[in-house]
Specification:
The protein is α+β, with helices and mostly antiparallel strands. The protein has one domain. Helix content is 34%, strand content 31%. The strands form 3 sheets. Strands 1-8-2 form a 3-stranded antiparallel sheet. It has a 3-stranded antiparallel sheet with strand order 4-3-7. A two-stranded antiparallel ribbon has the order 5-6.
Length: 96
């Protein structure tokens, strides 16, 4: 079984018609089987941008970075919130 994510570099995937690639049209037309979505992740939405959950734990010399403090404070006050993202869609191709 060939798992496509491991066979192509990210650079190669970005160059193969990104809109078609991301929607899975090329893979479906090439007889790849969709195994479904993987587990999604939570991201922090703050001032219209999304940030990785790890942002609020970023430390420098044992202390939270100023930006991490601002986002953490915003989460506590309601100025930022967690948003669930969709997981990656996994496609496989059976080699015979």
């Amino acid at each position: 079984m060939l798992e496509l994510d491991h066979s192509l570099s990210n650079h190669a995937k970005d160059r193969i018609f990104p809109i078609l690639w991301n929607s899975g049209i090329i893979l479906k037309a090439s007889n790849f089987k969709c195994l479904g979505n993987g587990k999604g992740a939570d991201v922090i939405m703050y001032q219209g941008k999304s940030y990785h959950d790890k942002t609020i734990r970023t430390k420098y010399k044992g202390e939270l970075k100023p930006f991490a403090k601002r986002i953490k404070d915003a989460l506590e006050s309601g100025g930022a919130f967690y948003k669930k993202t969709a997981g990656k869609v996994t496609y496989v191709y059976d080699l015979k």
